[in-house]
Amino acid sequence: MAITKSSSTFRGITNHTIEDQSFLKTFNVLLDHDRITHFMNIFKSYEFNKTITSDVSFYYTYEVEDEEWWDNISVKYYNTPLLWWVVAAFNNVVNPFEAPISGSNIKILKSKYIYSLLRDLDIIAGM
Fold first, then answer.
1. How many other C-beta atoms lie within 10 A of the C-beta of residue 13?
2. Terminal Cα distance for the chain, rounded
3. How many domains does the chain have?
4. Which phi-psi region, left, alpha or beta, contains residue 53 (left: φ > 0; alpha: ψ -120 to 50)?
5. Model confidence pLDDT, tens digit, residues 15-50
6. Which terminal CB of the chain, N or C, has fewer other CB atoms within 10 Å?
7. Residue 39, phi then psi, degrees to nearest 5
8. 120/125 Cα distance (integer angstroms)
9. What are the phi and psi torsion angles at 16 (to 5°)?
């Protein structure tokens, strides 16, 4: 069986309301081959260079608080929920339906590198 678009919503699956500005609303909810598992394949085309993700000069470390989601962490570091995908991608998260684990340490790309990241994505998209 193929992966198909699901009629379920993010809120229906997670009981978490997505803010209007969140890019999470732009991705389709997909249903896996088992017809039970819901996911979003948001990082099928891009990944961070391992040199950057392993060099502490490029990121901060953050301990996830209880019931915190990617968009909330984005607001704390980038003053916008719109960059939630940067936080998730920098931590190799494939499925943002899964909330970050409370108490875990994640990496946050320093905000001074966001412009370069967005510029590079524009260049890649234009190829």
1. 13
2. 33
3. 1
4. alpha
5. 877 766 565 665 678 888 888 887 776 655 567 888
6. C
7. -160, 170
8. 9
9. -115, 130
